[in-house]
Specification:
Length: about 675
């Protein structure tokens, strides 16, 4: 786990202002300080006449070797390629053996690999398999390979977007990095501006995160999850999607017709599992156990996050089979009903893990916000970021790697909102005209009245109503707070192309899952997981987000995911005997935050008012309207906490990255050795 930074110059000769590759390389070296937290163990650079690589290393595998930037090549040109790589490849041992079996003889008496790590497996796979190598990697990654013979750059990102990769191309060249902050320091060399993207801002206020490939800076984008790109000097990147999660399901309400329920009278190919619920649950358990086993590969200590839910508990329980001395970590708040500390402690005791707890108070919660938003690069208005930051800080005192349960909800149907199609099913039998009338009726019903939301949602199609788990501002509310509201910039800018990728026969639950894989998961869940752990130089691994686990999840019919009584039905069945009984059928909570209460009371009300009044965002946001919303939240029955938090996070971000008014105190990372 590391931080990479690269710069491909558009020309090799010096520019009119005297800038050369060497001077740009020096600036790349300096820009690495913005992501020192991602890799405090080593810092290195490499360059030729066009390509500049910079790297911060967090040593996890093959600690004494596998230094980066890394050089590798075939026998005729042993240093043909240069590589920078952030992440982990969990099947690297298998890939190395496969490559040696196929091509090892070409190297004669020379070793094909000069290290014991996973980095060489990537570049060797690329040499022999080309761009197809990206789909052979089982892990989390963002990497760049420079071919010194062809003068071409290849960059790629993992299928689900676990690891970030920012990208900017201008007249001066192309820069890419694990942190947007580092690219901001190179915009002059790229000949690009620092202007904000108003469309990305509007998307953020609706979704509570900036959707890929956007960022709040219009000249900096992100390489999307599951994509690779070829870049040549002086040209725009050519992006190709190599992974699009495809679900093999049938129409809603016809689960008995799913191909997975093949008639038992049909001959079954030799070696194929019988298609029964029991065999399906066994297949899920086996895939997850194999994934956890591979995610435990490390030359340092591996721990596990543990909330009170089924996902993290399953990961921790399976990890205990490989490390009986596993340490688990959880966090909570002092307010009753907003802590899973007791349940997590009970789970840790049940599986036999040593357990560490970090409790967060409102004062340190508020004080941490500027630092957290600096680490984020772009704001993410998810208050769960804060407890995650603190539990990561605590975990780093004990371990260098943690496992976590992200991705289970999207793959196995874990969000309560996925049950919405069940409640709205009766509306599908109504004529379109009647459904539209129901929508108009809902507009006349006062806010907060029971049934208003049901009528409104029932009047819309799935594409109109569902844009992920985050539901913040509606158009009327957005118009009241944004100075420049553009009604044509809607969530459908983001969701429309994703819905267009779906199979015509997919049921609504599966369509919602697929949408969340491209929006909520990679825009919120994985951003906060990566940024908050890397802020503390801690590597986080997510065994649910594994291609082999997805293969068993993709073929589940909707009634094996969502029922009237529960979510993640098949997963819960599969984890019988692995997860303690007190957790197996417990409702999802995660790391809940008492934001609604704190913004109404002495804990955060005055702090929030100060952030709003001192913000220099008057040209973008109607601050009196936001202050009125804060007061209405304090006194009235309507909960504005998530909308307020969305705007306040942006105001703090603006104070840091635009106004230069807020200066977070970022400490140089110093951690225990020999973890």
């Amino acid at each position: 786990m590391c931080g990479l930074l690269g710069f491909l110059t558009a020309q090799t000769a010096s520019t009119p202002d005297g800038r050369t590759v060497e001077t740009t390389a020096a600036q790349v070296y300096e820009a690495l300080h913005c992501q020192r937290h991602r890799g405090p163990d080593e810092k290195g650079t490499w360059n030729d006449e066009r390509m500049i690589f910079g790297f911060n290393r967090l040593s996890i595998i093959d600690i004494e070797h596998s230094h980066q930037p890394l050089r590798w090549g075939p026998p005729e040109n042993p240093e043909r390629y240069a590589l920078t790589f952030n992440g982990e490849i969990y099947n690297y041992l298998e890939l190395r053996e496969e490559l040696k079996a196929e091509h090892g003889a070409e190297f004669g008496d020379q070793p094909m690999f000069r290290t014991e790590g996973d980095s060489e497996a990537i570049v060797a796979a690329f040499h022999y398999w080309g761009a197809k190598a990206a789909s052979r990697l089982r892990g989390m990654f963002a990497f760049a390979i420079w071919d010194t013979e062809l003068n071409k750059l290849f960059i790629a990102r993992d299928p689900f977007g676990i690891k970030p990769l920012f990208l900017a191309t201008g007249p001066g060249g192309t820069a890419f990095s694990s942190e947007k902050k580092s690219i901001l320091e190179l915009l002059g060399d790229l000949e690009l501006s620092t202007d904000l993207d108003p469309r990305a801002l509007e998307h953020y206020t609706v979704l509570q995160y900036v959707p890929e490939p956007e960022t709040l800076h219009k000249d900096i984008r992100r390489l999307e999850s599951g994509c690779y790109a070829w870049v040549e000097p002086g040209q725009q990147p050519r992006v190709t999607r190599y992974f699009n999660p495809q679900f093999r399901v049938v129409p809603f309400g016809k689960a008995d017709e799913v191909t997975a329920h093949a008639p038992t009278t049909r001959p079954r190919p030799a070696g194929q599992r019988p298609n029964t619920p029991a065999s399906r649950y066994k297949e899920i358990a086996e895939a997850l156990e194999d994934s956890v086993a591979k995610h435990m590969r490390a030359d340092v200590t591996v721990g596990s996050f543990l909330s009170g839910g089924i996902d993290s508990t399953a990961i921790a329980a399976l990890a205990m089979r490989h490390n009986p001395n596993l340490i688990t970590f959880t966090t909570g708040f002092e307010r009753e009903g907003y802590s899973e500390v007791d349940v997590a402690a009970e789970s840790a005791a049940a599986i036999g893990a040593r357990h560490v707890v970090r409790v967060v108070g409102p004062e340190e919660f508020a004080a941490s916000i500027p630092e957290i938003i600096w680490y984020l690069d772009d704001p993410v208005a998810d208050p769960a970021l804060v407890p995650l930051y603190f539990v990561a800080k605590e975990a780093r005192k004990h371990v260098k790697v943690v496992l976590s349960g992200e991705g289970a909800d999207e793959l196995f149907g874990g969000y309560t909102i996925y049950r919405e199609p069940l409640s709205l099913k009766p509306f599908e039998y109504l004529p379109k005209r009647v459904r539209k009338l129901a929508g108009k009726l809902s507009e006349r019903i006062p806010e907060g009245t029971r049934g208003k939301s049901l009528l409104n949602r029932g009047s819309m199609t799935l594409e109109e109503r569902y844009y992920g788990n985050a539901r913040s501002f509606n158009d009327a509310q957005l118009r009241s707070v944004l100075r420049e509201f553009r009604p044509e910039w809607t969530h459908q800018d983001v969701t429309g192309p994703i819905y267009g990728m779906q199979g015509y026969h997919w049921d609504p639950v599966t369509r919602m899952q697929h949408l969340d894989l491209f929006t909520w998961l990679r825009g919120d869940i994985l951003v906060k997981a990566d940024k908050m752990t890397m802020a503390n130089s801690l590597e986080l691994r997510v065994p649910f987000l594994d291609p082999e686990v997805f293969k068993v999840a993709e073929k589940l019919p909707y009634d094996q995911k969502i029922t009237k009584e529960t979510t993640k039905y098949a997963l819960r069945q599969a984890l019988e005997g692995i997860v303690p009984g007190h957790v197996l059928h417990r409702a999802k909570l995660g790391f809940p935050v008492p934001l609604r209460h704190w913004l109404r009371g002495p804990e955060l009300f005055d702090w929030a008012r100060t952030q709003i009044t001192e913000s220099g965002t008057d040209h973008l946001i109607d601050k009196p309207a936001v202050l009125a919303m804060l007061e209405a939240h304090r006194t009235g029955p309507i909960d504005h906490s998530r909308r307020l938090w969305t705007l306040i996070c942006f105001m703090v971000w603006h104070g840091i990255f635009v106004e230069n008014r807020i200066k977070p105190e970022i400490q140089e990372p110093v951690y225990p050795v020999n973890l």
